């Protein structure tokens, strides 16, 4: 078990990549803290983890609300003594072309996908500094590296996450904290599964291996980066994209 007794906080943990990451971490021996806004989905995820006999805590946390994050972190530290891993997975899309994008949609995506990562990381990092160790993992995207039609707001946040990742790796390394990012490609999630077959086929054809990724593919990358196997890796962006940008 690569993460035995580690305390891992996962935001956006109720479904998709976040849920797969929580399940993977639990299999690797971690105590898992689930954060999400969807209460029903959160309870379902908790049930799955308890079926695995995993230790789990769950909190309805809005990553734009610093007081909710602080309350969660304080409670986790009081109950379990530390926060060893943070996975900043929570995020949304509100796609549109630049000339048609409402300002409120731009602001909403920035607030959750970018400032939300800042909020969670700043608060959790304070606890990690006190304990002298920790790992912060941020969800970027190939869209953040290469851009994508109709995703001005989303691409901006995912590029911004890369900048924060590299900056925090430099600032926090001396305090025993590693910071990395994962950049997924086209992943089959509850959101993408609703797309027309022809769109999914197009996405699949862009990969040299003619596959779409699964949430478990991303969870595996997070588990590696969170473990001591990656103890000499910080400030990097790991693309898990099936070669879609080759």
What's the β-strand tally?
Answer: 7
Tell me, briefly, the overall form.
globular
Structural class: alpha/beta
Q: If you consult CATH, what is the topology?
A: Rossmann fold
Question: What does the secondary structure layout of this molecule look like, with pairings?
Answer:
Layout: E1 7-11, H1 16-27, E2 31-36, H2 39-51, E3 56-60, H3 66-80, E4 85-88, H4 103-131, E5 134-139, H5 142-146, H6 152-172, E6 177-184, H7 197-205, H8 215-226, E7 237-240
Parallel strand pairs: 1-2, 1-4, 2-3, 4-5, 5-6, 6-7
Helix pairs in contact: 1-8, 3-4, 4-6
Protein name: 3-oxoacyl-[acyl-carrier-protein] reductase
Active site: 154 (proton acceptor)
Catalytic activity: a (3R)-hydroxyacyl-[ACP] + NADP(+) = a 3-oxoacyl-[ACP] + NADPH + H(+)
Describe this structure in words.
The protein is α/β, with parallel strands linked by helices. The protein has a single domain, classed as Rossmann fold. It is built from 8 helices and 7 strands. The protein has helices at residues 16-27, 39-51, 66-80, 103-131, 142-146, 152-172, 197-205, 215-226; strands at residues 7-11, 31-36, 56-60, 85-88, 134-139, 177-184, 237-240. A 7-stranded parallel beta sheet has the order 3-2-1-4-5-6-7, with helices on both faces. β4 (85-88), α4 and β5 (134-139) form a beta-alpha-beta unit. α1 (16-27) packs across α8. The model has no long low-confidence stretch (mean pLDDT 96).
């Amino acid at each position: 078990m690569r993460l035995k007794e580690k305390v891992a906080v996962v935001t956006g943990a109720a479904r998709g990549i976040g849920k797969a990451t929580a399940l993977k971490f639990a299999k690797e021996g971690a105590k898992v803290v689930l954060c999400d806004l969807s209460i029903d989905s959160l309870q379902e995820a908790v049930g799955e983890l308890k079926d695995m006999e995993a230790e789990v805590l769950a909190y309805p946390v809005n990553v734009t609300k610093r007081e909710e994050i602080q309350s969660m972190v304080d409670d986790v530290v009081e109950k379990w003594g530390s926060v060893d891993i943070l996975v900043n997975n929570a995020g949304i899309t509100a796609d549109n072309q630049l000339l048609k994008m409402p300002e409120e949609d731009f602001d909403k995506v920035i607030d959750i996908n970018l400032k939300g990562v800042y909020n969670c990381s700043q608060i959790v990092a304070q606890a990690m500094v006190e304990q002298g160790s920790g790992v912060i993992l941020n969800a970027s995207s190939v869209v953040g590296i290469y851009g994508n039609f109709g995703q001005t707001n989303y691409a901006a946040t995912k590029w911004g996450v890369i900048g924060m990742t590299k900056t925090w790796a430099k600032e926090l390394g001396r305090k025993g904290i590693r910071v990395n990012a994962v950049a997924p490609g086209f992943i089959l999630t509850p959101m993408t599964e609703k797309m027309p077959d022809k769109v999914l086929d197009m996405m699949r054809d862009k990969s040299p291996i003619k596959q779409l990724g699964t949430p478990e593919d991303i969870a595996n990358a997070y588990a590696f980066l969170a473990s001591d196997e990656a103890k000499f890796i910080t400030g990097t962006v790991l693309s898990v994209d099936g070669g879609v940008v080759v």
